[in-house]
Protein backbone atom coordinates (compact mmCIF):
# COMPACT_ATOMS: atom_id res chain seq x y z
CA UNK A 1 0.00 0.00 0.00
CA UNK A 2 1.32 3.40 -0.99
CA UNK A 3 1.35 6.00 1.81
CA UNK A 4 -0.79 9.10 1.45
CA UNK A 5 1.07 11.84 -0.39
CA UNK A 6 0.76 14.88 1.87
CA UNK A 7 1.60 17.19 -1.06
CA UNK A 8 -1.22 15.88 -3.23
CA UNK A 9 -3.96 18.56 -3.42
CA UNK A 10 -6.59 15.89 -3.99
CA UNK A 11 -5.80 14.33 -0.58
CA UNK A 12 -6.13 17.69 1.17
CA UNK A 13 -9.53 18.64 -0.27
CA UNK A 14 -11.37 15.33 0.09
CA UNK A 15 -14.08 15.68 2.70
CA UNK A 16 -16.56 13.30 4.22
CA UNK A 17 -19.85 13.78 2.40
CA UNK A 18 -21.72 13.09 5.63
CA UNK A 19 -20.11 15.23 8.33
CA UNK A 20 -17.61 17.39 6.37
CA UNK A 21 -14.75 15.83 8.30
CA UNK A 22 -11.53 14.75 6.60
CA UNK A 23 -11.75 11.65 4.41
CA UNK A 24 -8.58 10.15 2.96
CA UNK A 25 -10.36 7.14 1.50
CA UNK A 26 -13.55 6.13 -0.23
CA UNK A 27 -15.71 3.84 1.87
CA UNK A 28 -18.71 1.95 0.49
CA UNK A 29 -18.14 3.88 -2.74
CA UNK A 30 -18.45 7.29 -1.04
CA UNK A 31 -16.03 9.86 0.29
CA UNK A 32 -16.79 8.96 3.88
CA UNK A 33 -14.70 9.21 7.03
CA UNK A 34 -13.96 6.14 9.11
CA UNK A 35 -16.26 7.30 11.94
CA UNK A 36 -19.29 7.65 9.67
CA UNK A 37 -18.60 4.33 7.94
CA UNK A 38 -18.27 2.51 11.26
CA UNK A 39 -21.43 4.17 12.59
CA UNK A 40 -23.40 3.10 9.52
CA UNK A 41 -22.28 -0.52 9.66
CA UNK A 42 -23.30 -0.76 13.30
CA UNK A 43 -26.57 1.13 12.83
CA UNK A 44 -27.91 -0.59 9.72
CA UNK A 45 -30.73 -2.95 10.53
CA UNK A 46 -30.08 -2.89 14.27
CA UNK A 47 -31.55 0.34 15.66
CA UNK A 48 -34.25 2.89 14.95
CA UNK A 49 -33.38 6.46 15.76
CA UNK A 50 -35.44 9.60 16.36
CA UNK A 51 -34.36 12.99 15.04
CA UNK A 52 -33.06 15.17 17.86
CA UNK A 53 -34.59 18.33 16.39
CA UNK A 54 -37.78 16.73 15.10
CA UNK A 55 -37.16 18.16 11.64
CA UNK A 56 -35.20 15.31 10.00
CA UNK A 57 -32.94 18.06 8.63
CA UNK A 58 -30.19 18.35 11.22
CA UNK A 59 -26.90 19.92 10.13
CA UNK A 60 -24.35 17.15 10.27
CA UNK A 61 -21.15 18.86 11.23
CA UNK A 62 -18.36 16.74 12.63
CA UNK A 63 -19.20 15.71 16.19
CA UNK A 64 -22.96 16.38 15.95
CA UNK A 65 -25.04 13.67 17.54
CA UNK A 66 -28.25 13.24 15.48
CA UNK A 67 -27.92 9.61 14.52
CA UNK A 68 -31.15 9.48 12.51
CA UNK A 69 -30.19 12.29 10.16
CA UNK A 70 -26.68 10.89 9.87
CA UNK A 71 -27.96 7.46 8.87
CA UNK A 72 -30.63 8.88 6.55
CA UNK A 73 -28.03 10.94 4.70
CA UNK A 74 -25.81 7.89 4.16
CA UNK A 75 -28.81 5.84 2.99
CA UNK A 76 -29.72 8.54 0.48
CA UNK A 77 -26.19 8.82 -0.90
CA UNK A 78 -25.86 5.04 -1.20
CA UNK A 79 -29.22 4.89 -2.96
CA UNK A 80 -28.11 7.54 -5.45
CA UNK A 81 -24.87 5.65 -6.03
CA UNK A 82 -26.80 2.43 -6.67
CA UNK A 83 -29.05 4.20 -9.20
CA UNK A 84 -26.18 5.73 -11.16
CA UNK A 85 -23.74 2.85 -10.80
CA UNK A 86 -20.95 5.28 -9.88
CA UNK A 87 -19.45 6.21 -6.54
CA UNK A 88 -20.20 9.64 -5.09
CA UNK A 89 -17.16 11.88 -4.64
CA UNK A 90 -16.70 15.24 -3.00
CA UNK A 91 -15.25 17.36 -5.82
CA UNK A 92 -14.61 17.35 -9.57
CA UNK A 93 -10.88 16.81 -9.26
CA UNK A 94 -11.33 13.67 -7.21
CA UNK A 95 -14.08 12.56 -9.64
CA UNK A 96 -11.55 12.47 -12.44
CA UNK A 97 -9.20 10.45 -10.30
CA UNK A 98 -11.91 7.97 -9.31
CA UNK A 99 -13.13 7.37 -12.85
CA UNK A 100 -9.69 6.87 -14.32
CA UNK A 101 -8.12 4.94 -11.48
CA UNK A 102 -10.12 2.19 -9.73
CA UNK A 103 -7.75 2.12 -6.75
CA UNK A 104 -9.13 4.34 -3.95
CA UNK A 105 -7.00 6.63 -1.84
CA UNK A 106 -6.49 5.18 1.63
CA UNK A 107 -5.90 6.49 5.08
CA UNK A 108 -2.27 6.22 6.12
CA UNK A 109 -3.39 3.99 8.99
CA UNK A 110 -5.53 1.76 6.79
CA UNK A 111 -3.61 -1.48 6.39
CA UNK A 112 -6.66 -3.42 5.15
CA UNK A 113 -8.59 -2.69 2.01
CA UNK A 114 -11.58 -0.46 2.55
CA UNK A 115 -15.15 -1.56 1.79
CA UNK A 116 -14.81 0.28 -1.51
CA UNK A 117 -11.73 -1.74 -2.48
CA UNK A 118 -11.14 -1.70 -6.21
CA UNK A 119 -11.71 -5.45 -6.36
CA UNK A 120 -15.42 -4.67 -5.95
CA UNK A 121 -17.41 -3.31 -8.85
CA UNK A 122 -18.42 0.28 -8.22
CA UNK A 123 -21.82 -0.55 -9.64
CA UNK A 124 -22.32 -3.68 -7.57
CA UNK A 125 -25.64 -3.97 -5.77
CA UNK A 126 -25.64 -2.70 -2.21
CA UNK A 127 -27.47 -5.90 -1.26
CA UNK A 128 -24.32 -7.93 -1.97
CA UNK A 129 -21.47 -5.71 -0.76
CA UNK A 130 -20.19 -8.22 1.78
CA UNK A 131 -20.51 -11.11 -0.66
CA UNK A 132 -18.48 -9.22 -3.25
CA UNK A 133 -15.75 -8.38 -0.75
CA UNK A 134 -15.58 -11.95 0.56
CA UNK A 135 -15.52 -13.34 -2.98
CA UNK A 136 -12.66 -11.04 -3.96
CA UNK A 137 -10.74 -11.79 -0.76
CA UNK A 138 -11.22 -15.54 -1.16
CA UNK A 139 -9.96 -15.41 -4.75
CA UNK A 140 -6.90 -13.54 -3.56
CA UNK A 141 -6.30 -16.08 -0.79
CA UNK A 142 -6.82 -19.01 -3.16
CA UNK A 143 -4.37 -17.63 -5.72
CA UNK A 144 -1.73 -17.14 -3.03
CA UNK A 145 -2.17 -20.69 -1.79
CA UNK A 146 -2.18 -22.13 -5.31
CA UNK A 147 1.01 -20.34 -6.29
CA UNK A 148 2.87 -20.93 -3.03
CA UNK A 149 2.01 -24.62 -2.80
CA UNK A 150 3.02 -25.33 -6.39
CA UNK A 151 6.25 -23.32 -6.21
CA UNK A 152 7.34 -25.15 -3.05
CA UNK A 153 6.96 -28.62 -4.56
CA UNK A 154 10.20 -30.57 -5.09
CA UNK A 155 9.42 -30.95 -8.79
CA UNK A 156 9.32 -27.84 -10.95
CA UNK A 157 5.83 -26.89 -12.12
CA UNK A 158 5.56 -25.14 -15.47
CA UNK A 159 4.36 -21.54 -14.95
CA UNK A 160 1.51 -22.10 -17.41
CA UNK A 161 0.10 -24.79 -15.12
CA UNK A 162 -0.17 -22.52 -12.09
CA UNK A 163 -3.87 -21.93 -12.64
CA UNK A 164 -7.03 -23.35 -11.13
CA UNK A 165 -7.94 -24.92 -14.46
CA UNK A 166 -4.60 -26.71 -15.00
CA UNK A 167 -3.50 -27.31 -11.41
CA UNK A 168 -1.72 -30.70 -11.09
CA UNK A 169 -3.14 -32.17 -7.88
CA UNK A 170 -0.99 -34.55 -5.86
CA UNK A 171 -1.54 -36.88 -2.95
CA UNK A 172 -0.53 -35.26 0.31
CA UNK A 173 2.06 -36.51 2.77
CA UNK A 174 2.60 -35.73 6.44
CA UNK A 175 5.15 -33.11 5.45
CA UNK A 176 3.01 -31.40 2.82
CA UNK A 177 0.03 -31.20 5.20
CA UNK A 178 2.23 -29.39 7.70
CA UNK A 179 3.36 -26.97 4.96
CA UNK A 180 -0.04 -26.28 3.40
CA UNK A 181 -1.61 -25.58 6.77
CA UNK A 182 1.07 -23.01 7.50
CA UNK A 183 0.35 -21.42 4.14
CA UNK A 184 -3.40 -21.40 4.79
CA UNK A 185 -3.24 -19.79 8.21
CA UNK A 186 -0.77 -17.21 6.90
CA UNK A 187 -3.28 -16.10 4.26
CA UNK A 188 -6.22 -15.77 6.66
CA UNK A 189 -5.30 -12.35 8.14
CA UNK A 190 -4.90 -10.89 4.64
CA UNK A 191 -8.21 -12.46 3.60
CA UNK A 192 -9.87 -10.94 6.65
CA UNK A 193 -8.49 -7.44 6.07
CA UNK A 194 -9.74 -7.47 2.50
CA UNK A 195 -13.15 -8.92 3.31
CA UNK A 196 -13.78 -7.14 6.61
CA UNK A 197 -11.97 -3.76 6.86
CA UNK A 198 -12.53 -3.40 10.63
CA UNK A 199 -10.45 -6.51 11.24
CA UNK A 200 -7.30 -4.57 10.40
CA UNK A 201 -7.94 -2.10 13.22
CA UNK A 202 -7.84 -4.83 15.89
CA UNK A 203 -4.73 -5.63 17.89
CA UNK A 204 -2.51 -8.39 16.51
CA UNK A 205 -3.39 -10.56 19.48
CA UNK A 206 -7.13 -10.30 18.78
CA UNK A 207 -6.55 -10.78 15.05
CA UNK A 208 -4.60 -13.94 15.84
CA UNK A 209 -7.29 -15.33 18.14
CA UNK A 210 -9.97 -14.86 15.48
CA UNK A 211 -7.76 -16.13 12.64
CA UNK A 212 -6.77 -19.26 14.55
CA UNK A 213 -10.36 -20.10 15.42
CA UNK A 214 -11.43 -19.58 11.83
CA UNK A 215 -8.56 -21.74 10.56
CA UNK A 216 -9.67 -24.68 12.69
CA UNK A 217 -13.24 -24.48 11.40
CA UNK A 218 -12.50 -23.47 7.84
CA UNK A 219 -9.87 -26.03 6.82
CA UNK A 220 -12.24 -29.02 6.83
CA UNK A 221 -15.22 -26.94 5.70
CA UNK A 222 -13.40 -25.77 2.59
CA UNK A 223 -11.69 -29.15 2.10
CA UNK A 224 -15.07 -30.90 2.01
CA UNK A 225 -16.69 -28.28 -0.23
CA UNK A 226 -13.86 -28.31 -2.78
CA UNK A 227 -13.52 -32.09 -2.70
CA UNK A 228 -17.21 -32.44 -3.58
CA UNK A 229 -16.66 -30.13 -6.57
CA UNK A 230 -13.30 -31.54 -7.69
CA UNK A 231 -13.63 -35.25 -6.88
CA UNK A 232 -17.35 -36.10 -6.99
CA UNK A 233 -16.62 -39.71 -7.96
CA UNK A 234 -13.99 -40.21 -5.23
CA UNK A 235 -15.99 -40.35 -1.96
CA UNK A 236 -12.90 -40.99 0.18
CA UNK A 237 -10.97 -37.95 -1.00
CA UNK A 238 -10.71 -34.68 0.89
CA UNK A 239 -8.66 -31.69 -0.19
CA UNK A 240 -5.51 -31.24 1.84
CA UNK A 241 -4.52 -27.66 1.25
CA UNK A 242 -5.30 -26.10 -2.11
CA UNK A 243 -3.40 -28.41 -4.49
CA UNK A 244 -3.25 -31.69 -2.57
CA UNK A 245 -5.71 -34.42 -1.65
CA UNK A 246 -5.66 -37.23 0.88
CA UNK A 247 -7.89 -40.05 2.14
CA UNK A 248 -8.47 -41.72 5.47
CA UNK A 249 -6.60 -44.81 4.24
CA UNK A 250 -3.22 -43.13 4.89
CA UNK A 251 -1.12 -45.50 2.77
CA UNK A 252 2.59 -45.84 3.44
CA UNK A 253 3.44 -43.04 1.04
CA UNK A 254 1.78 -40.59 3.42
CA UNK A 255 4.59 -41.11 5.94
CA UNK A 256 7.56 -41.01 3.57
CA UNK A 257 8.67 -37.55 4.75
CA UNK A 258 7.82 -38.05 8.42
CA UNK A 259 10.64 -36.41 10.45
CA UNK A 260 10.70 -39.18 13.07
CA UNK A 261 11.05 -42.95 13.16
CA UNK A 262 7.59 -44.51 13.41
CA UNK A 263 5.82 -47.87 13.25
CA UNK A 264 4.12 -47.18 9.93
CA UNK A 265 1.73 -50.13 10.00
CA UNK A 266 0.52 -49.40 13.52
CA UNK A 267 0.07 -45.69 12.85
CA UNK A 268 -1.62 -46.29 9.50
CA UNK A 269 -4.17 -48.68 11.01
CA UNK A 270 -4.92 -46.43 13.97
CA UNK A 271 -5.29 -43.25 11.91
CA UNK A 272 -7.53 -45.01 9.42
CA UNK A 273 -9.90 -46.07 12.17
CA UNK A 274 -9.82 -42.64 13.76
CA UNK A 275 -10.42 -40.60 10.60
CA UNK A 276 -12.68 -42.73 8.41
CA UNK A 277 -15.87 -41.74 10.22
CA UNK A 278 -15.08 -38.02 10.30
CA UNK A 279 -13.90 -37.70 6.71
CA UNK A 280 -16.91 -39.62 5.42
CA UNK A 281 -19.31 -37.47 7.40
CA UNK A 282 -17.77 -34.21 6.15
CA UNK A 283 -17.81 -35.27 2.52
CA UNK A 284 -21.31 -36.72 2.81
CA UNK A 285 -22.56 -33.54 4.46
CA UNK A 286 -21.33 -31.39 1.58
CA UNK A 287 -22.64 -33.83 -1.01
CA UNK A 288 -26.13 -33.59 0.48
CA UNK A 289 -25.96 -29.82 0.89
CA UNK A 290 -24.77 -29.03 -2.66
CA UNK A 291 -23.79 -25.48 -1.78
CA UNK A 292 -23.69 -22.80 -4.42
CA UNK A 293 -20.68 -20.51 -4.51
CA UNK A 294 -22.54 -17.59 -2.85
CA UNK A 295 -23.82 -19.92 -0.13
CA UNK A 296 -20.30 -21.19 0.51
CA UNK A 297 -18.98 -17.63 0.80
CA UNK A 298 -21.81 -16.43 3.04
CA UNK A 299 -21.27 -19.32 5.46
CA UNK A 300 -17.53 -18.64 5.33
CA UNK A 301 -18.22 -15.05 6.42
CA UNK A 302 -20.60 -16.13 9.20
CA UNK A 303 -18.11 -18.74 10.34
CA UNK A 304 -15.40 -16.09 10.56
CA UNK A 305 -17.47 -13.84 12.83
CA UNK A 306 -18.83 -16.58 15.11
CA UNK A 307 -16.87 -15.50 18.18
CA UNK A 308 -18.98 -16.66 21.12
CA UNK A 309 -16.37 -18.90 22.74
CA UNK A 310 -13.49 -16.41 22.43
CA UNK A 311 -12.58 -14.00 25.22
CA UNK A 312 -12.65 -10.73 23.31
CA UNK A 313 -13.47 -7.12 24.27
CA UNK A 314 -17.03 -5.91 23.76
CA UNK A 315 -16.09 -3.67 20.84
CA UNK A 316 -14.73 -6.68 18.94
CA UNK A 317 -17.83 -8.79 19.55
CA UNK A 318 -19.97 -5.82 18.49
CA UNK A 319 -18.13 -5.74 15.17
CA UNK A 320 -18.85 -9.45 14.80
CA UNK A 321 -22.51 -8.98 15.72
CA UNK A 322 -22.84 -6.21 13.16
CA UNK A 323 -21.29 -8.31 10.42
CA UNK A 324 -23.44 -11.35 11.20
CA UNK A 325 -26.59 -9.20 11.04
CA UNK A 326 -25.49 -7.69 7.72
CA UNK A 327 -24.59 -11.10 6.28
CA UNK A 328 -27.97 -12.52 7.23
CA UNK A 329 -29.70 -9.57 5.55
CA UNK A 330 -27.71 -10.20 2.40
CA UNK A 331 -28.58 -13.90 2.52
CA UNK A 332 -32.29 -13.09 2.75
CA UNK A 333 -31.93 -10.79 -0.26
CA UNK A 334 -29.96 -13.47 -2.12
CA UNK A 335 -32.70 -16.06 -1.73
CA UNK A 336 -35.50 -13.64 -2.52
CA UNK A 337 -33.93 -11.69 -5.38
CA UNK A 338 -31.37 -14.03 -6.93
CA UNK A 339 -32.87 -17.44 -6.27
CA UNK A 340 -36.50 -16.27 -6.38
CA UNK A 341 -37.28 -18.42 -3.34
CA UNK A 342 -40.11 -17.29 -1.10
CA UNK A 343 -39.99 -20.23 1.30
CA UNK A 344 -36.28 -20.54 1.94
CA UNK A 345 -36.27 -20.99 5.72
CA UNK A 346 -35.47 -24.70 5.46
CA UNK A 347 -32.58 -24.07 3.07
CA UNK A 348 -31.20 -21.35 5.30
CA UNK A 349 -31.41 -23.66 8.29
CA UNK A 350 -29.51 -26.37 6.40
CA UNK A 351 -26.73 -23.96 5.56
CA UNK A 352 -26.40 -22.71 9.12
CA UNK A 353 -25.87 -26.26 10.36
CA UNK A 354 -22.54 -26.18 8.52
CA UNK A 355 -21.17 -23.82 11.17
CA UNK A 356 -22.16 -26.20 13.94
CA UNK A 357 -20.91 -29.25 12.05
CA UNK A 358 -17.45 -27.87 11.41
CA UNK A 359 -17.26 -26.13 14.77
CA UNK A 360 -17.15 -29.60 16.28
CA UNK A 361 -13.97 -30.38 14.36
CA UNK A 362 -11.89 -28.47 16.91
CA UNK A 363 -12.08 -31.17 19.58
CA UNK A 364 -11.54 -33.94 17.02
CA UNK A 365 -8.62 -32.09 15.48
CA UNK A 366 -6.96 -31.80 18.87
CA UNK A 367 -7.45 -35.51 19.51
CA UNK A 368 -6.06 -36.42 16.11
CA UNK A 369 -3.01 -34.16 16.42
CA UNK A 370 -2.31 -35.34 19.94
CA UNK A 371 -2.49 -38.92 18.71
CA UNK A 372 -0.11 -38.13 15.83
CA UNK A 373 2.33 -36.55 18.27
CA UNK A 374 2.21 -39.59 20.56
CA UNK A 375 2.81 -41.83 17.54
CA UNK A 376 5.84 -39.68 16.60
CA UNK A 377 4.28 -38.55 13.32
CA UNK A 378 4.47 -34.97 14.60
CA UNK A 379 7.17 -33.39 16.73
CA UNK A 380 6.48 -31.13 19.70
CA UNK A 381 7.62 -28.10 17.69
CA UNK A 382 5.37 -28.91 14.73
CA UNK A 383 3.48 -25.78 13.71
CA UNK A 384 0.22 -27.62 13.13
CA UNK A 385 0.51 -29.29 16.54
CA UNK A 386 1.23 -26.03 18.34
CA UNK A 387 -1.65 -24.25 16.64
CA UNK A 388 -4.25 -26.31 18.48
CA UNK A 389 -2.77 -25.73 21.91
CA UNK A 390 -4.43 -23.36 24.34
CA UNK A 391 -1.25 -21.35 24.91
CA UNK A 392 -1.17 -19.94 21.37
CA UNK A 393 0.56 -18.20 19.66
CA UNK A 394 3.02 -20.97 18.81
CA UNK A 395 6.56 -21.12 20.04
CA UNK A 396 8.88 -18.51 18.49
CA UNK A 397 5.84 -16.63 17.17
CA UNK A 398 6.14 -13.08 18.49
CA UNK A 399 3.25 -10.63 18.46
CA UNK A 400 4.16 -6.96 18.85
UniProtKB/TrEMBL annotation:
Give the Polar residues compositional bias ranges: 90-100
User: Taking every annotated instance into account, which residue ranges of this chain make up the domain NR LBD?
Assistant: 137-391
Give the Nuclear receptor domain ranges.
13-88
Does Transcription regulation show up as a keyword for this record? yes
- State the source organism's domain of life: Eukaryota
List the InterPro entries: NHR-like_dom_sf, Nucl_hrmn_rcpt_lig-bd, Znf_hrmn_rcpt, Znf_NHR/GATA
Where is the region Disordered?
80-113
Gene Ontology cellular-component annotations: nucleus
Keywords, alphabetical = DNA-binding, Metal-binding, Nucleus, Receptor, Transcription, Transcription regulation, Zinc, Zinc-finger
PROSITE patterns noted in UniProt:
NR_LBD, NUCLEAR_REC_DBD_2
Q: Which GO terms describe its molecular function?
A: DNA-binding transcription factor activity; sequence-specific DNA binding; zinc ion binding
> What protein am I looking at?
Nuclear receptor
Q: What is the scientific name of the source organism?
A: Pristionchus mayeri
